[in-house]
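testing teh design pipeline on a random one, pls ignore if ur not involved
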């Protein structure tokens, strides 16, 4: 079988799904968002994607969403002078709203889209295909399909991905959050370089890299970007012992990305690493009581071993 040449797209390397920083009055802290993006890009992340579920995107108005992307675009110059990629998460209850988001992305000079199914409507394949197709037709930008059956009740099969990719050349990647490493190898075997496969769960990052994934949409990279980039690079290079040691240290924190309160948990790690605030937007509330105390104790225990485990001297 002939493998087509690679299509240039922005969906490679470590791409944090950014949190949305909020002020105490519930408004977006745009200065903090810009500072966070600059820090992650300086650490070696190739871009940022926003505002997804970790970014509390469902609580943002259309105008807030676009203002946030403008701020991230302005902050996207990396320390080496290169421009990091800024990717819009297209998520909406209606196809009309999703298309409106997609149309605006090119005007903002963004680099790509991550396309979600309509996350409230549990329909059939014809409806999901129509929704995604409308979004793909609405933009010239490269697009990544987001497959997260646990969160959205939709599991895009290889045949369905192939059908969409055949009809829309700007569908160039799939973010897979099934947690099944076999799905990543199946995407690679079926599509070769035509469709890039990206890891969507933090505690599958190393497995995904070793299975040929081209990128990782990362959550804990908001709090620990250097360690995230280093882990991904080691996993891709095959440096097994060093990678395994770093992964073992990191895993208790990476697993926070896969729990129902992952937004509060990751923001709590950011507060402990002084990379952000734990402030969330209603209806979310910060963790309280025993859950909060136990989580902080775990975070501090892991971070207490940070220097000995992951210092550059050990690289």
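output:
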């Amino acid at each position: 079988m002939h493998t087509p040449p690679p299509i240039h797209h922005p969906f490679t390397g470590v791409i944090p799904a950014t949190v949305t920083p909020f002020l105490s009055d519930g408004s977006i802290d745009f200065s903090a968002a810009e500072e966070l993006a600059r820090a992650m890009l300086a650490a070696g992340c190739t871009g940022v994607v926003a505002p997804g579920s970790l970014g509390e995107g469902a609580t943002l108005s259309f105008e807030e969403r676009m203002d946030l992307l403008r701020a991230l675009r302005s902050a996207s110059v990396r320390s080496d002078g290169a421009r990091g990629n800024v990717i819009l998460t297209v998520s909406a209850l209606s196809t009309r709203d999703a298309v409106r988001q997609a149309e605006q992305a090119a005007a903002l000079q963004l680099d790509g889209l991550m396309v979600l199914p309509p996350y409230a409507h549990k329909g059939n394949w014809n409806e999901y295909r129509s929704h995604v197709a409308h979004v793909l037709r609405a933009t010239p930008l490269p697009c990544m399909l987001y497959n997260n059956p646990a969160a959205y009740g939709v599991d895009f099969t290889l045949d369905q991905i192939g059908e969409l990719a055949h009809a829309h050349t700007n569908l160039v990647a799939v973010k897979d959050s099934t947690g099944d490493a076999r799905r990543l190898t199946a995407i690679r075997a079926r599509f070769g370089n035509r469709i890039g496969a990206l890891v969507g769960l933090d505690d599958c990052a190393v497995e995904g890299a070793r299975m040929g994934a081209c990128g990782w949409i990362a959550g804990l990279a908001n709090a620990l970007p250097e360690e995230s980039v280093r882990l991904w690079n080691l996993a891709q290079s095959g440096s097994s012992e060093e990678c395994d040691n770093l992964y073992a240290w990191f895993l208790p924190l990476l697993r926070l990305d896969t729990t129902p309160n992952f937004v509060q948990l990751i923001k709590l790690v950011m507060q402990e690493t002084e990379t952000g605030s734990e402030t969330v937007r209603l209806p979310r509330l910060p963790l309280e009581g025993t859950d909060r105390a136990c989580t902080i104790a775990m975070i501090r225990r892991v971070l207490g071993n940070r220097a000995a485990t992951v210092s550059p001297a050990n690289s």
